[in-house]
Amino acid sequence: MTFPAAVLSMAGLDELISTLAGDGYRVVGPTLRDQAIVLAELTSAGDLPAGWAVQTGPGTYRLKRRADSAVFCHSAGPQSWKQFLHPPDRKLWSADRDGFHPADDRQQPPFAFLGVRACDLAAIDTLAGVLGAGAWPDRSFRGRYRGLFVVAAGCTEPGGVCFCASMGTGPRPGPGYDLALTEQIDQAGHRFVVEAGTEAGAQVIARISHRAAGEAELIAARAAVDAAAAAMGRQMPAVDLAGLLAASRDSVSWEQVAERCLTCGNCTMVCPTCFCTTTRDSSGETGEHAERWQHWASCFELDFSYLHGGSVRSSGESRYRQWITHKLGTWHDQFGRSGCVGCGRCIAWCPVGIDITEEIATLVALREEGAGEAAGD
Amino acid sequence: MSNLPTLAVWKFASCDGCQLTLLDCEDELLSLAGQVRIAHFLEASSEVLAGPYDLSLVEGSISTPADTLRICEVREQSRLLVTIGACATSGGIQALRNYADFEEFRSAVYASPQYIESLATSTAIADHVRVDFELRGCPIDKHQLLELITAFLAGRRPEIPDTSVCTQCKRRGLTCVMVAHGTPCLGPVTHAGCGALCPAVDRGCYGCFGPMAGANLPALTRQLRQGGMSAREVDLVLRTFNVAAPGFAEHREDR
Ligand code: SF4
Ligand code: SF4
Ligand code: SF4
What we know:
The structure holds two protein chains of two kinds.
Chain A (H helix, E strand, L loop, with lengths): L5 E4 H13 L3 E8 L2 E6 L10 E6 L2 E6 L16 H4 L3 E8 L2 E4 L8 E6 L1 H14 L7 H8 L2 E5 L10 H4 L11 E8 L2 E8 L2 H8 L4 E2 L2 H13 L13 H7 L5 H8 L5 H5 L6 E6 L6 E8 L9 E2 L2 E2 L4 H20 L9 H4 L7 H21 L1
Parallel strand pairs in A: 2-8, 8-9, 9-10
Antiparallel strand pairs in A: 1-11, 1-12, 2-3, 4-5, 6-7, 6-14, 10-11, 13-14, 15-16
Chain B lengths: L5 E6 L5 H8 L1 H8 L3 E4 L12 E7 L5 H13 E7 L1 H5 L11 H8 L23 E3 L6 H13 L10 H7 L5 H5 L35 H10 L4 H7 L8 H4 L6
The structure holds iron/sulfur cluster (3 copies).
C-alpha cells in the first residue's frame, strides 16, 4: 500500500514531535551536546541541531557550522539507536531471602525515533533479527522494539566515513519506517518531503499541518537522496567478504593491524549492530540481597574469551580478526545477513582511526599478491 | 560475633586517601560492620585485635627498610592480602624518585636528611610478597571496594573487569574527547574502574587506575604524538600516579 507524499514546514516538524509525544511516545532524536550531535529525548524541534554539520574521518569528528539551518544534514554521531533498544546496563533480576524477582520488563512508554538514517534503519532491523527473533528472543528488547515508531531521514550529505551505498543499506531508507523525511532548503524555503511507510505513519501526518507533495517535488527529493550514493567518503570493496575472511585466517595483515589497535573496544560499543553482553552479579553487604545486571561487552576485552585459566583470544591480532570476521563473514552464517551496515562509526570513533574498509582492501591486496606469487612460481 | 571474618587495614607509604574511601562508604559500612570484625584499622579505631586476619587491605608502597620487614609480617598474618590503590599496586606517585637522584631529593626536601631512613625506590607490595588481588586507582573506587569486600564475604570472585576506561565511557554515553575534541586521553590503555570520571567533564583520562592488561602503549603514544604532543609531554602524562607500573614505565622515553 502506498500513501500520498506530503510536505511539512519546520512548524509542521515541531507539530510532529508534539503529536508523537502527545500520543505517549518518548521522542528521541539528534541534539547538540558535548561538541557532538548525540541522541536524546526531544521536547520540540528547537532541540534539533539546526545549522550544524559534522566532518568525520578516521579517528576524528568535528562539528561544523552550516550556512543554512538544516537539522538533519549531519552523519552518524558517537551513539546509535542501540543505546535505547539494547541499553548498555540493564538489571535482569534481584533476589532476597523472600524470593526471586525478575526485573520489571513491563512496557515503558514506547520510543519514537526521529531522524533515523538508512544505515541505522538497517541496523535496527539487524538487531531485531539477532535479539528479537529465534527460539529464545530477548523479551525485554522485544518490548522496546515492538512499539517503536520510526521517522527516517534520507541523507543528502553523507559523511567522510560513510559507506552504506556499498553495503546495500542506503542512502535511501529501506523498509521499516513509519515516515521518511527528506530535508530540502532552497528558494522555496525550508521543508521536509514526507513519505509514509505504514498506516500509522499516514495517520500521524493526517493529524498535523501539511500540504500534499507535488509529483516533481517528490521526484526531486528522492533524486537528492539517491545522488548521495556517489558522495560517500568510503566504500567497501565489492568482493565476497565472507570468503575473503575465511581464506585470510593466517594473513600477515592481522599483525599489522594489531600494532595499531588499542583493543579499547570503542568500535564495538559504537557499532549499531554489535550486541554482545556479559552479566555481573553483586551480593550486597549483608548477603541478603543479590542482583544480576547485563552490560554491553566487547570482543576486544580480554575477559570476553576468558575460560578457566585464561583468555582464548589473548593477542590483539586474534581479537581484531574475530571482530571483523564476525561482522562481515560469519554473521552471514549465523543470521543470514551482514553484521555491518556501513555507518562508519567504528572508523570515526576509533581513537587511532582503524578503518574497516581499508583493512578489507589490504586483505584483498594481500590475496592478489599471494595469487600472483603462486602463479609466478 | 567471634565467628565473623576479620578485616585488617594496613598503611605503608601513602596519603590515606584509599583508606578514607572505606570510611566514605558510610551507609554500607554500618551493614558491613555486622558482617566482618574490623580487627585492625587505625584510621577508624584504636582498638587492635591480634592476628591472623582473614582479609588484609594494604594501602601504600614500600619505601623504607622497616616497610620491607613489616609487609612480610602482614603477609604472614593474612589469609588473603589485597592491595588497594596505585601506591600499593605500582609504587604510587612517590615512585617518581625511582627515576631521579634519590640523595639529591632527600637533601632538598628534608632539613636534616641524616635522620631520614628511606629506600632509594618506592615499590609495589607485589614486589615483596605474594598478593591475592590488586584494587586499582588513585584513589580506589568506592563501588569496586564494596564489590571486593562483598565478594570476599560471599566467597565469590570479585567482578572487577580488566578492560579499558573507554568501555565505561561509551556505556555512559559520553562523547569521546579524543575523537571529538582532540584532547589527549589515556582511556584506551587504562584499567576501567573510575566510571570514566574525567571524560565526563570534558577531560582526557589521566591513567589513575594504571595500565589494563595487554595495553598497547606504543599505539597510543604514536597517536598522542600525531595529535601534537612532544615526546617529553607524552612522558609526562605517563609519569603520574602509576609512574612505575611496568605497562606505563616501559614505554616512556625517559625511563
Ligand atoms: S562495523 Fe563499523 S561501519 Fe559497520 S555497522 Fe558497525 S560501526 Fe558501522
Ligand atoms: S579497532 Fe580501534 S576502536 Fe576498535 S579496539 Fe582497536 S583501537 Fe579500539
Ligand atoms: S574519551 Fe578517552 S576514555 Fe572515553 S572513549 Fe575516548 S579515549 Fe576512551
